[in-house]
Design a protein that fits this description.
With 444 residues, the protein is an all-alpha fold. The chain has a domain at 340-436: Alpha Horseshoe (Serine Threonine Protein Phosphatase 5, Tetratricopeptide repeat). It has 23 helices and no strands. It has helices at 31-37, 51-65, 70-87, 91-106, 111-123, 127-140, 145-158, 161-174, 179-191, 195-207, 214-230, 234-247, 252-264, 268-281, 285-297, 301-318, 326-336, 340-351, 357-369, 373-385, 391-403, 407-420, 425-436. It is globular and about 75 Å long.
Amino acid sequence: MAVFYSDGGHDSFLSVRSVMRKGAVLIVVITTAVAIAAQINPASVAQQLSPAEQSMATAQQLIEKNPKNYEAYNALALALSRRARETSDVKFYSQAEEALQKSFAIAPGNSDGERIHVWLLLGKHEFAAALAEATKLNKKMPDDVMVYGFLTDANVELGNYSDAEKACQRMLDLRTGNLPAITRAAYLRELFGETDGAIELMNMALQSTPPAQAEDGAWILTQTAHLYLSTGNLDKSEKLLRQALAMFPGYHYALGNLAKVRIQQKRYGEAVDRLQQRYQAAPHAENLYDLAEALQLAGRTDEAKKAFAEFEQKSMAETNRADNSNHELIFYYADHANQPAKALEVANREIARRHDVFTLDAYAWALYRNGEYADARRQIETVLAVGIRDAKMFRRAGEIALKAGDRPAAERYLQLAVQLNTLGSEQAETTLASLQNPNRKTAR
């Protein structure tokens, strides 16, 4: 889940690809960009435009007035990045890069442009490059709050959690209560297993978000709903997701999480509807994977088979890119296609890039499916040592421990998964029951 600005899932906080694995942060407010936007009367901007579209229009007007205004190009790049999150359309990142290059052509090395460039690298999942550039900026601007935010983001995605925590703490020390630091701290608390603390921080962030920032508010509501869902509180999660969709209609992140609520409620047809709506708005491979799984749960086998086949094709086309759907591809080969060797091939490719808990979890499962139980055990133990409390991870840890010959650990992990009473808990309960009844088939 990622989450400072995502992904989600599991992935980048700035990613527009998968909020719960991939990240999503409150938009960086660069002082000059705000000053530029203030030069235009807000009443002149069409009210039906989203906040990002309004900022894009403002920047374009300033560029038309003065094509040599590098700050206007910075503002445009920032607005385009924000539009990428609103729509989950990565084309806006390319447009932002173009705007940024024009800024640098006018004012080489300008500091706001350099900040935005790191932001774009994170959004495109080029985490190692983002860390390198953020480190350089940090040396030049040691008290810049948002540079510490970038250091936090990049280190989290690479699995450097101690460094991420230090950078986030520095953000809070430099400016107590600043929103970008609060949302990052909330995500770190989630990763460290402190869900209640994460919810508390997200509520603080929501209370401090201006009503006009509809997408920011919807994102915070969605992230908070995800946290409640992870502990089995479906009613609270659904309530927040409905608020998010009322605040920002058709919000793709909220639709994806509402589908998870419906799956937990066994209302599979409604889950399919929400995921189809999300996929139409954001036609990414990982979103198609979720839709295929929901179709399978709904008993629409032929449609699921077709969706999985299309997912595989789309995912393989991007597997060597930085921004990819390799986590889903690993689980597809491991759990649906019965091709464990391919699962491990993809996992090895992704583990060479990053060592966050979501990548390590997928890697451990690929090892397990290939019969490499000892190595799988080491990887999943590394994941759980971070502190994350995720029912699916606990369930996989239980099955791995069982194959590694450690029945007490297997039962402990499976019980933890069951206690969370959320997605993955039911499978864990079936596996746990099979330990008491050897004749009962273990869940995959």
